[in-house]
Specification:
about 90 residues; alpha+beta; Aminopeptidase; about 35% strand
C-alpha cells in the first residue's frame, strides 16, 4: 500500500437551508423537477428527516425523507454527487 494513501473522511449531518442550492444542482443534474420551495417544506415538516453526506468536508450526497403519519409510511430520495459515487 502506498504511504500517501489515506481513507476518505465521510460525515453525515442534518440537511439545512444552506444545502438547498446543492440539492437543486444535484436534482437538476438528474432531471428531477425539485424546487427550493420543495426543500424548504421538507425542512419545515421534519427538520431532522433529511441529511447531507460530506466527503472530506465537501458535500457529496443527500438523503431526504418524508413521513406520512396517517399511513405510517416513508418516502426516501437519495442522490450522490457524480464525482463522489465511487466512494459513498
Amino acid at each position: 500500500m502506498s504511504s500517501d494513501f489515506r481513507e476518505a473522511q465521510i460525515q453525515i449531518r442534518p440537511f439545512g437551508k444552506a444545502d438547498i442550492e446543492f440539492a437543486l444542482e444535484q436534482t437538476g443534474r438528474e432531471g428531477w423537477d425539485s424546487t427550493a420551495s420543495f426543500f424548504e417544506t421538507l425542512i419545515a415538516h421534519d427538520p431532522e428527516g433529511s441529511f447531507i453526506a460530506e466527503l472530506d468536508l465537501r458535500r457529496a450526497g443527500m438523503v431526504t425523507t418524508t413521513r406520512y403519519v396517517e399511513s405510517g409510511t416513508w418516502k426516501i430520495r437519495a442522490l450522490a454527487a457524480s464525482d463522489s459515487k465511487r466512494i459513498l
